[in-house]
Amino acid sequence: MNRGLNIKEIIQSVQSSEGENFQYNETAILAEYQKKEANTSSLAIKILSIFGGFFATQTFLGFLALMRLFESEVAILTTGIIFIIAAIWLNKTHDKLIFDTLSISTYVTGFVLLGIGLSGLNVEENPLIFIILVVSLLTILVNQTYMLSFIAVITMAGCLLAFIIFNKSYEFFHLYHISIAYTLAYLMLNEAKIITFNKELSKLYDPMRIGLIFSLLFGLIISVNRAVFEMPTSFIWLSSVLLLIGVMYLVSQIMKRMNITDKKQQIIIYILSVLVLSSTIFAPSILGAILIMLLSFFVNYKTGLVIGITALAYFVSQYYYDLNLTLLVKSIILFSSGILFIVFFLFTHKKHIANEKV
C-alpha cells in the first residue's frame, strides 16, 4: 500500500513539474504496478521454481523415452519444436510465476532436443547454428517477455561464438567483441529514447541489456582461455584498441556528469586513464570489464556494476597467470595499475565531496 502511495506521489511530482499539459492514465499505471507486484517473488523462490519446472520437464521426457519415442530423430526434432512453441505460448499468455518458470525449462529443453534432432539427421554445423539463431530471433520478435528474451539473446550470441569456433575464423572475435560492446553502450546510453519508442522495445530493453552484458563476457572469457581453442595471439591488441576508444569516451562523459570542466584536471584524468589502460593492451577482457563497469556506473545500473566488478577481478587474475609475460613485468604492471586506480578514486571522491559542500 505504501508503495502505491509512493507511485502516486511520483506521478503528482512529475505532473507539477510538467504542467497542466501532462496527461496520464493513473488507473492503468496502478493496475500494471499491482500486476507486477503480484508476480514478484524472491530470487530463491524463482530459482527453486525454475529447478522444479526443469525437473518436471525432464520427468516428462523420461516418460517419452520409456515409450521409445526418441528412437527416431524426426520424433526428437518434432518434440523439440513443440516444446519451443509451447514455451513461447505459455510465456506470452500467462503471467503467473509457475507458468513463467515452466516455460523457461520447456524452452531450453526444446532447444536441446532441436539440436539433437538436427544432428541426428546429419545436418552440418553451420546450418544447425543458423537454424537455432533464427529460432532465437523469432522468439524475440514474437514474445517480448523478460526471461525468454534474455535466453534468446544469450542463445544468439552463443550461435555467433559457435560459428567462429567451429569454422576457426578467430579474426571475427574482434568484430564480435566490438559489435556487442558498442551495441551495449548505445543501448545503455540511449535508454530514454529506446523505452519510449514503442511498447515492444520498452519490454525488450531490460533483457537485451543484461543479455548483451553476458554475451560480451562470454566472448571475453573465450579470448582469455584462447589456448584451449588454439587461437592466435598476433592481433589480440586490436580488440583492446577499439574497446579503449569506448572506455575513453565514457571517461569523457563521466567527467561531464561530474562537472569537471577544468582543463588541467581533465588532462590529468585522461593521462591517468591512458596509463592504466595501456597496460591491458594485450588483455581485451580487462578493458571489456571496465567498459561494463563504467557504463553501469554512468547510468546507475547496480546489477551491471556488480557483474563488471566481478568480471574485472576474474580477468585480472587470469591476466596475472598469463604465461606470455614474465612474473616481474606482470607484477610491475598490476602494481602500477593499482596505484593509479587508487589515485583516480581519491581524485573523484574529493571532487564528489566538494560538490556536496557546494
Could you walk me through the main structural features you see in this protein, from its secondary elements to its overall organization?
The chain is an all-alpha fold and 358 residues long. It has a domain at 1-38. Helices cover 81% and strands 0% of the residues. It has helices spanning 2-18, 26-38, 43-66, 73-93, 97-120, 125-142, 146-166, 172-189, 191-195, 199-224, 237-257, 263-278, 284-299, 302-320, 327-357. Helix 4 runs antiparallel to helix 5 and helix 7 (146-166) packs parallel to helix 10. The two termini are 37 Å apart. This is DUF4401 domain-containing protein. Residues 43-347 form the DUF4401 domain. Keywords: Membrane, Transmembrane, Transmembrane helix.
SSE layout and pairing:
Layout: H1 2-18, H2 26-38, H3 43-66, H4 73-93, H5 97-120, H6 125-142, H7 146-166, H8 172-189, H9 191-195, H10 199-224, H11 237-257, H12 263-278, H13 284-299, H14 302-320, H15 327-357
Summarize the helix and strand pattern as letters.
Answer: HHHHHHHHHHHHHHH
Range of strand content = under 5%
How much helix, percentage-wise, in residues? over 70%
Seen as an oligomer or otherwise, the chain set is single chain
Total number of helices: 15
Protein structure class: mainly alpha
Please describe the biggest sheet, giving its number of strands, its sense, and whether it closes into a barrel. Answer: none
Low-confidence stretches: 354-358
Number-wise, the strands total: 0
Averaged pLDDT: 78
Radius of gyration: 24 Å
**Spatial gap, N to C terminus:** 37 Å
The shape is: flat
